[in-house]
């Protein structure tokens, strides 16, 4: 992703309207493997190290897209938008249950990335919604690089779930910025990275 693009989006964030609590909340959504985390990390650096929250810590496993809304809105967005700390128990992908608590203090800018974070219920709290996309074959290859070939069944189910979610939520159409994530680099293996 060109640094000029990141700088341009950072400038838009700085001039976007803050929440009542004074934070600017950036939601970065798009399908699995599109490059959301890479873009979020680069945007964070351009915004003086703004904290980045990952939906991968919020989902309740591979079926977690359906249960994201309550935790995202009630435990993360609502408190941050009011200038209060957000706190939730992260999903432990290896144990298959909630684990360590994540505590996030209010900040001038908070970046939240992951499939589903730009849903309608979350948009009311957003200063800016960014959509990151890449061709399906690129995203699938990244998934297999991260998760390994044994995860093909998870890919198939997740891709269907996210397609239904995006069709219902119209997230891409609602985004103020669209980013081509095809050039971003894949993440590392270990904990699922959606």
Topology, please?
Elements: H1 3-15, E1 24-29, H2 36-46, E2 52-54, H3 68-81, E3 86-92, E4 97-104, E5 109-113, H4 120-123, E6 128-133, H5 136-147, H6 152-169, H7 171-174, E7 177-180
Parallel strand pairs: 1-5, 1-6, 2-5, 6-7
Antiparallel strand pairs: 3-4
Gap between N and C termini: 19 Å
In CATH terms, the superfamily is P-loop containing nucleotide triphosphate hydrolases
| Secondary structure: number of strands | 7
Major sheet size, sense and barrel closure: 5 strands, parallel
Helix/sheet category: alpha/beta
Number of helices: 7
Relative helix content: 25-40%
Poorly predicted residue ranges: 186-192
- Relative strand content: 15-25%
CATH third-tier fold name: Rossmann fold
Structural domains: how many: 1
Order of helices and strands: HEHEHEEEHEHHHE
In CATH's first tier, which class applies? Alpha Beta
Radius of gyration: 15 Å
On the 0 to 100 scale, the average pLDDT is: 92
Strand order of the largest sheet: 2-5-1-6-7
Task: Write up what this structure looks like.
By secondary structure, the chain is of the alpha/beta class. The protein has a single domain, classed as 3-Layer(aba) Sandwich (Rossmann fold), CATH 3.40.50. Helix content is 39%, strand content 20%. The chain is built from 7 helices and 7 strands; from the N terminus they run αβαβαβββαβαααβ. It has a 5-stranded parallel β-sheet, sandwiched between helices. The longest helix is centred in the last third of the chain and has 18 residues. It is globular. The protein starts with a helix and ends in a 14-residue tail after the last strand. The C terminus is likely disordered.
């Amino acid at each position: 992703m060109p640094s000029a693009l990141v700088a341009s989006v950072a400038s838009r964030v700085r001039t976007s309207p803050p929440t009542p609590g004074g934070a600017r909340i950036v939601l970065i959504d798009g399908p699995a493997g599109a490059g959301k985390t890479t873009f979020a990390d680069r945007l964070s650096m351009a915004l003086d190290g703004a904290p980045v929250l990952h939906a991968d810590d919020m989902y309740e496993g591979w079926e977690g897209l359906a249960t994201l809304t309550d935790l995202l809105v009630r435990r993360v967005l609502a408190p941050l938008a009011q200038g209060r700390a957000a706190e939730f128990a992260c999903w432990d992908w290896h144990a298959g249950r909630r684990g360590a608590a994540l505590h996030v203090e209010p900040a001038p800018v908070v970046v939240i990335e992951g499939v589903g974070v730009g849903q309608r219920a979350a948009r009311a709290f957003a200063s800016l919604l960014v959509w990151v996309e890449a061709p399906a074959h690129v995203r699938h290859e990244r998934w297999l690089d991260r998760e390994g070939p044994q995860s093909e069944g998870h890919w198939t189910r997740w891709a269907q779930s996210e397609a239904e979610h995006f069709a219902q939520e119209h997230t891409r159409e609602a985004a103020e910025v669209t980013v081509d994530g095809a050039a971003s680099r894949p993440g590392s293996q270990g904990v699922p990275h959606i």
